[in-house]
């Protein structure tokens, strides 16, 4: 009987193949180990995920930022760190980003992702994501930056750009935006919109008599009184030294606009107590209506301004724009 056995060459091939696999595995482990040690020593918050979006690396910076200890979060889905509402509203965007991350070798950034800490606190982050390959294996590295201070700074700058420094009212830039939006709403709701242009009477003599500090305080007091006299839906703005403009939304007729202007006039006639001085103020007021007196913000403002000069010349009650006003 002949016994069949494996040839020495066959054993050598299998042994060599096994050694190659073991050596490759060891090299991969060493490569990943060095990479992970590098991630652990940085102060940046870094999270790594595998092809199934499971978290496989969670460094010390990530522990500090998210409040999770490493042993609790490893193996969880990467979206565990994203707040539920953001996951729901940005579901398709997140799916697209996951696909891009897998298909693209180039890194990319995402701003204003809403994340949550272990204690439930929500906060915005900016994310940089890149793909790293280890012998055919892919690791997705996410560098996470808390964006709270950046967004607060941006909002502060935006507020300063859009508001008057002295009175804190919307300035002309923000007024124009509000007017354009208000016109669109009025058109949609089949309502009118009023523009009330107000210029203080004899403000320069007040400045000359009492000083610029008193004049500035008077402007601040007038701004507060105007804001208190109007509805929340209206926009009270300061557009010049002693000029204010009010955008009246949700009005049904010119009588509504005239009534609002008369209310403003009466409110301003109540004396002001400024730095120990009793100061009386009044204003000339012009009114323009959408759509009768203009179908865009520029035209409405110009016609309200013209109506204001008519009121100043007449020295009386608020004036509605008419084509012969000038």
Name some characteristics of this structure.
48% helix; Beta-Lactamase; Alpha-Beta Plaits; five-stranded antiparallel sheet; alpha+beta; 2 domains; five-stranded mixed sheet; 11 helices; 326 residues
Compact overview of the structure:
With about 325 residues, the chain is α+β, with helices and mostly antiparallel strands. Helix content is about 50%, strand content about 25%.
The tally of domains stands at 2
Strand content: 15-25%
- The appropriate CATH architecture of the largest domain is 2-Layer Sandwich
The average pLDDT value, as a whole number, equals 86
Q: Name the helicity range.
A: 40-55%
| CATH fold type of the largest domain | Alpha-Beta Plaits
Count of individual beta strands = 12
CATH level 1 class label of the largest domain: Alpha Beta
Q: What is the rounded Rg?
A: 34 Å
Oligomer: single chain
Head-to-tail CA distance between termini? 125 Å
Uncertain runs: 1-18
The coarse overall form would be: elongated
Q: How many distinct helices?
A: 11
* Strand/helix succession: HEEHHHHEEEHHEHHEEHEEEHE
CATH superfamily of the largest domain: Reverse transcriptase/Diguanylate cyclase domain
Sheet bearing the most strands, described? 5 strands, antiparallel
